[in-house]
Amino acid sequence: MSESTVPQAKTNGWEPKIVAFCCNWCSYGGADSAGMGRFQQPASTRIIRVMCSGRIDPLHVFNAFLEGADAVLVTGCHIGDCHYVNGNDKTKIKYKYLESVVQQLGIEKERLQLNWISASEGEKFANFIRDVTEQIKKLGPSPLKPEGVV
Amino acid sequence: MSDNKGTETERTETKGTEVQKDNDEKRVGVFVCECGVNIGGVVNTKAVADYIGTLPGVKVTSVNKFTCSDSGQADIQQKIKEHNLNRVVVAACSPKTHEPTFRACLEQMGLNQYFLEFVNIRDHCSWIHMWEKEKATEKAKDLVRMGVERSKLLEPLVQSEVPVIDKALVIGAGVAGMQSALDLADMGFQVYLVEKEPSIGGRMARFDKVFPTNDCSICILGPKMVEVARNKNIKIMSYSEVKAVDGYVGNFNVKIEHKPRYLDVAKCTGCAKCSEVCPVEVPYDFNEGFGTRKAIYVSFPQAVPLRAVLDKENCINCKACAKACASGAINYDMQPSYTDLNVGIIVVSVGFKTYDPEQRHDFGYGLYDNVITAMEFERLLNAAGPTGGHVVRPSDCKEPVRVGFVNCVGSRDKATNIYCSGVCCMVTIKNAQLLKEKRPETDHTIMYIDIRTPFRAYEESYNRSRNLGVKFLRGRPVEVKEDPVTKNIKVRVEDTLAGEIRNLEFDLMVLATGIVPHEGINQIQQLLKLSKAADGLLMEAHPKLKPVDTTIDGVYLAGVASGPKDIPYAVSQGSACAGRAAILLKNRKAVTEGITAVVNPDVCVGCQVCIPMCPFQAIKMDEKEGKANVVKALCKGCGTCVAACPTGALEQSHFKNNQLLAQVKNVFRFQEVAA
Questions:
Q1: How far apart are CA B94 and CA B431, in angstroms?
Q2: Beta strand pairing status for B167-171 and B345-348?
Q3: Domain map of chain A by residue range?
Q4: CATH architecture of A16-139
Q5: Left, alpha or beta for B236 (phi > 0: left; psi -120 to 50: alpha)?
Q6: Cβ A126–B136 below 8 Å, yes or no?
């Protein structure tokens, strides 16, 4: 169990908002396991469930950024473990493209992250959320913050 | 106890953020669960309900102590009736465990089950923000709001049913496949049992005795083989292979090739007169290459079916067999024949082979005559084997006195296979016991990494070996040499428990070779689109909860094809497959998930980008129309094709773009900003 869970005084008040896409079979289950293991995490992340990481469309990721997400996480099963044989292989290919577009848009690379998390890796999920949140806190709000976006 | 605070709101959708496709008014009911104190102890559920009640379209909100309880579900049903709800949002635990409960609750009220939106505010919120109550409450509000907006866009779906043909195909007639076939046949289903060898029985037919009880293998397998042959509902297709598989759960079309035996099976009586006169002798594969068989032969005395087979490759065409055959069964011009089967389910029990140490000359195998494998040792021990049960060493046919056994050859080794083959420790222990019992003067040393004896009576068997005087040495030989004169095997091995180097000399050394995938496994894997695990064997649908299912509906795995196992485990899996398959075969129908990909033919341009995306071959081209077409029974609803479609013609029902984007957009509070 992690020790970084003691009630903290507000650090700087600002909590980033992170959108995490999770596949039903692995990473969503990993997030569930994090809950079951009570692995405490910053309350920064909002999970959106899809059946397979292969379903995650660049459209969804770009929309999340446009709406003001400070970071977007693409997660799925470990390579070789995909419930749908190889959907995550395709995610991996798509992700490379996503990465390059996001960087061309001037969004820092830390704001888009890919991770494979199995349904049993609750602690890994929690650590991932903690790490990303820390990184984003250092970067500050997304340059595409929502003011003006409707 | 349910303290329901139905905060009713009179709002209608006056400022919908989305363009609604249908004009039906969405009447959403939101049910926030406290899960005792699991959620309620952290998240201010009342505040969440109050806030959500202000959202457009939300007709009623309710907080329950336990929404999944009878009273909680009754509350949902009552509110559906009272407020004529057409969408239900449950904010509680994980949909992975509780979605089916609430779906059924909706169905009972005549509401389509896919009108349920499940929001996880326990595992993903209260449990992971235990000491941040305010933040957790805010997050819960966000999550529920996302759910509410998504729910408004949900569309009704139906789970489709496909008819199931009540016939089964079992591929591989080893002990696991035979068990599956017998169980299914006894339940009254027609079973086709396909075996590529001339006889059923599999690897178990070659074992001498089986651990831990050391009972004679063929004595327990033989009657089972006869039982299979006698069963009216089982059609054995020996010396046959699966060549093509098409279709899906409930309706597989399978092409079976019957290899030519070059004799009429109906006429052959298995008398083996043909073998007696055949002048050709070749190494006997059933005896692991020890001894010889003829070019026309019965594969082993207990073979089922008890029919000869002519090995055309080695036949010299002298026609002696045709003259000897009293029933005139021999037919030299036989061609392969084919059968097309139509079955509802398939059991895959294609077995394994043992690791071949020849390729790397592990421990001198292939270089030195007196290094043999455990399977070869097994045949030497066997009374029906090449030496009539006398264990002799290959170099001079003398009976060995000092026997060394090396465990984990081709297992637990980064250079070959990293996994443990599970059975070899017990095989070695059994083999040492058997020879020790036959010839007490023999001296046995087992060189091991770890001795693994996990199941009933295994540890007892190990203890028995120790009591018999079998020596256990923890260490792997680092140097193996042959004495050029005596042909004895000289081994240098570190005894890691004593911490010293030992130089040992054996008359015979036996390698416990591990379990590796059969050559045929790739063909079956590709034909059936199964997945393979890291060890090269076939992969089950879930390692714990679906150990004999595969990701392909209606295809099941039994025996060592899905990982190393011993005989009782393989037999259990055979029965398990029969049980799982019988659910479909008895119901005569299979339910396929309502969540599938859907093509909009008006938008599809027939670019075929989606086709290779699908690992289940569910997308076919409609050649006439030039459009993609999703075969619902094959589609598993992953949505990978949808994300790949460049025109937006493909959509995944229940996870449509607008539904997912409704969630994305509602992570952020625009309504409030705007207001």
A1: 51
A2: parallel
A3: 16-139
A4: 3-Layer(aba) Sandwich (3.40)
A5: beta
A6: no
For residue B532, give the DSSP letter: B
A65: closest chain B residue by CA = B664
CA B545 to chain A, closest CA, distance in angstroms equals: 13
Q: Tell me: pLDDT of B515 over 90.
A: yes
Complex ipTM over 0.85: yes
Put simply, the answer to whether B655 touches A63 (Cβ < 8 Å) is no
pTM value surpassing 0.90:
no
Of A15, A31, A48, the CB nearest to B663: A48
pLDDT exceeds 90 at position B555: yes
Residue B451: exposure state from Cβ atoms within 10 A (0-12, 13-18, ≥19): middle
Residue B11 clears pLDDT 80, i.e. is over it: no
| Nearest residue to B194 (alpha-carbon basis) of B213, B180, B215 | B180
B663/A52 Cβ within 8 A: no
Residues of chain A with pLDDT under 50: 1-11, 148-150
SS3 state at B67 = coil
Q: What pLDDT score does B246 carry?
A: 84
- In this prediction, residue B411 has a pLDDT band, given cuts at 50, 70 and 90, of very high
Across the interface, whether the CB atoms of B128 and A35 are under 8 A apart is answered yes
Q: Half-sphere exposure of residue A112, counting CA atoms within 13 Å on the CB side?
A: 23
Could B670 and A150 be called an inter-chain contact, meaning their C-beta atoms sit closer than 8 Å? yes
User: pLDDT class for B113, splitting at 50, 70, 90?
Assistant: very high
> In this predicted structure, what is the pLDDT of residue A146?
54
The answer, for B5 touching chain A at a CB cutoff of 8 Å, is no
pLDDT digits (tens, 9 = 90+) for B278-299: 999 999 999 999 999 999 999 9
**Which chain A residues touch B122 with a CB distance below 8 Å?**
35
CA distance B195 to chain A (A): 28
- Best mutation target, A21, A44, A51, A117, to test chain B (most B CBs within 10 A): A51
Q: What is the pLDDT of residue B363?
A: 97
Which token pair is B273? 């007169």
Contacts within 8 Å (CB) and 24+ apart, B74-82: B75/B2, B75/B4, B75/B31, B76/B29, B76/B31, B76/B102, B76/B105, B76/B106, B77/B105, B77/B108, B77/B109, B79/B6, B79/B29, B79/B31, B80/B29, B80/B106, B80/B109, B80/B111, B81/B109
Residue B175's closest CA among B243, B231, B234, B228?
B228
